[in-house]
Amino acid sequence: MSQTSVRPDAALEQPYAYRRVELVEPDWRRLPGFRDVTAAEWADVQWQRAHCVKNIKQLRALMGDLVDDRFYADLERDQAERATMSMLVPPQMVNTMVPTGPADSQTWTEAFYADPVRNYMLPVFSERRTDWPSHPHATRDSLHEHDMWVAEGLTHRYPTKVLAELLPTCPQYCGHCTRMDLVGNSTPVIDKLKFDLKPVDRYDAMIDYLRRSPGVRDVVVSGGDVANMPFKNLEAFVARLLDIENIRDIRLATKALMGLPQHWLQDDVRAGMERLSTVARARGVHLAIHTHVNNAASVTPLVADATKAMLEAGVRDVRNQGVLMQGVNATPKDLLDLCFALLDGAGIMPYYFYMCDMIPFSEHWRVSVKEAQRLQHGIMGYLPGFATPRIICDVPFVGKRWVHQIEDYDDVRGISYWTKNYRTGIESTDPDALDRRYEYYDPIHTLPEAGQAWWREHGPSVDHAAASDRAKASRTAAGESVEEQSALLPS
Ligand code: SF4
Fold first, then answer.
1. pTM
2. How does residue 425 score in pLDDT terms, banded at 50, 70 and 90?
């Protein structure tokens, strides 16, 4: 029988139905604490910063009786026993939670629990795993960036590019932050690492290293979030980068483009970005902004305005690096909705989705490599090729790998094996670095029973084996004792 003879008359639905969606700024006056806030206040970055939610009392004052006590108790327990990041949510982000109010037959509390932005910005205890809250191989500095510091805060992991962590703060703190070791205030669970040097000395040391390193052409200027730097200091640092002949790409990392777009809409910031972009263009350097948006709900007209302002100021591009998380965006539909909102609505280029890293207490967010591969397959073919994001596993001691680049995979124990084609900054004299296989671990609760049983038997001993030389080096660099690390692991 030919294929045409079995074709149904009515066209079948596509797995994903694209439709153009107009961006909407949710009405903040639906929230009791914002009832009297004017549009002028909302647009004012100082008002936004002054009204961030930093604790449960402030959240209660904002939400009033909309949310039940059980939610606040759940959040409080998480803050005390699990949270690796302190609470800091700008009004702009709070306003994208439950943007149109609860759905039919849902209460505010249920809608708040179900909300993807709330999920990672205000994590609660009941959503964390109780079987394996942390993977036995989870570490505070899961990417071992400190091991690769060539100057304080300057990570040289790849041959041609570096990461400059200019500051340890952000206008918003994400529950899953990869740099939880360094970024933000200490929590009851995590004492944060502190920079030793004064900012001015740290920046001098970074610039000095880059002047001496002609092989480096690409600098990610990050933190933290560069929106928390006084703009004149950021401008001065970027201007010094622009003076270094070998630097050809500069990327400014700021989630605030979404979380606090009011910052990037300020006149002095726009004017300063225009000055930097003009010099960058004249010197043939690509100056871009990289932001971090995880769900379509976060893409509002103000985010589009801030992006437009930056593109008009002359930056070459604004790109998004989201994080793939269960409960936030881990379906093809959620990822594609986000990519189209970014691309159609805001002019932001979808670029990467990172798998959530193996930090403590992140197991409920993480997905397996197999699932990440399925998601990559699910989003292919809908977006233009240049805007189809790659889903990336940031493999410890390797770097970013596309999820289909695995060398080998034990999908029962959830161990994937990866190789690399360059030496990182700490392997310049290691003859075996390019032949070694590096491991990455799926969340244990996603494994078949045989795999889970293996981890129950071997997990705790693997913990201490995992106090391997590599992890030990990381902990020592972070000034953390083995006992402290073990305290994060399941008993
Ligand atoms: S904005 Fe980035 S650096 Fe800051 S808390 Fe969120 S993930 Fe971490």
1. 0.92
2. confident
